[in-house]
Amino acid sequence: xxxxxxxxxxxxxxxxxxxxxxxxxxxxxxxxxxxxxxxxxxxxxxxxxxxxxxxxxxxxxxxxxxxxxxxxxxxxxxxxxxxx
Length: 84
What we know:
Elements: E1 2-7, H1 16-26, E2 32-37, E3 40-43, H2 47-52, E4 60-66, H3 70-83
Helix pairs in contact: 1-3
């Protein structure tokens, strides 16, 4: 299992565009990807679930990966988040 924390830097928060970019990349991997914030955990491969987190600037997201390609998925999602 791999995981990392990410602080949302966008003044608009974690809105539809970043959630969509993250979802598109996450679904390329076989491993389970969970995204947690404010005590709620959702499937990182479910766009509506990601958007339901309603994360604001400065709040933290915890990403957890479990499965055969977890390391590759972690690296890929970190790259996506760096571009947001």
